[in-house]
Amino acid sequence: QARLVESGGGLVQAGESLRLSCVASGRLFSNNGMGWFRQAPGKEREFVGSINWNGSSKYYADSVKGRFTISRDNAKNTVYLQMNSLKPEDTGVYYCGGGRKAYAGGVVEDYAYWGQGTQVVVSS
After folding, report:
1. Residue 1: pLDDT above 80?
2. Residue among 2, 67, 47 nearest 29 (CA)
3. What are the φ and ψ backbone dihedral angles of 115, each rounded to 5 degrees?
4. Cα(67)–Cα(77) distance, integer angstroms
5. CA distances (Å), 81 to each of 1, 9, 38, 57, in order?
6. Contact 120, 95 (CB under 8 A)
7. Which contacts qualify for 111-116: CB closer than 8 Å, 24 or more apart?
8. Mean pLDDT of the chain
9. Could you tell me which residue, 98 or 28, shows the higher pLDDT?
């Protein structure tokens, strides 16, 4: 079994930055794609970004391109999401997902494991 634990969320003002971390343990990480999703109150979970097993391929939602950067450190079993120029519409619970394969895309079905989420609130 695998376990994912997110951290780094918080309350910030518009224009500020946050860095989220997700530490993986158990049977997955270095051979699996990883991703970040978010969910705002009353809305469905939406894709934010994903990274393949060795970090050579990254994919972002249009809403965060140019502002967010996903990265990973396989030696630390950790995936990061650097969020710059935050906007109020970025508010939500951010979830880390462990992919089923070496490459993970933008749909929840690509992911077999999820963390408990970390709250991000961006005030205007």
Report:
1. no
2. 2
3. -85, -175
4. 24
5. 24, 11, 12, 15
6. no
7. 111/35, 112/2, 112/28, 113/2, 113/3, 113/4, 113/28, 114/4, 115/4, 115/5, 115/6, 115/22, 116/5, 116/6
8. 95
9. 98
Q: Quick check: 89 pLDDT over 90?
A: yes
Cα 63 to Cα 48: distance, rounded to the nearest angstrom: 8
Res 87: pLDDT: 98
The string of pLDDT tens digits covering residues 22-75 is 999 877 688 999 999 999 989 999 999 999 999 999 999 999 999 999 999 999
Pairwise CA distance, residues 123 & 96, whole Å = 23
Token pair 């518009």 is found at 14
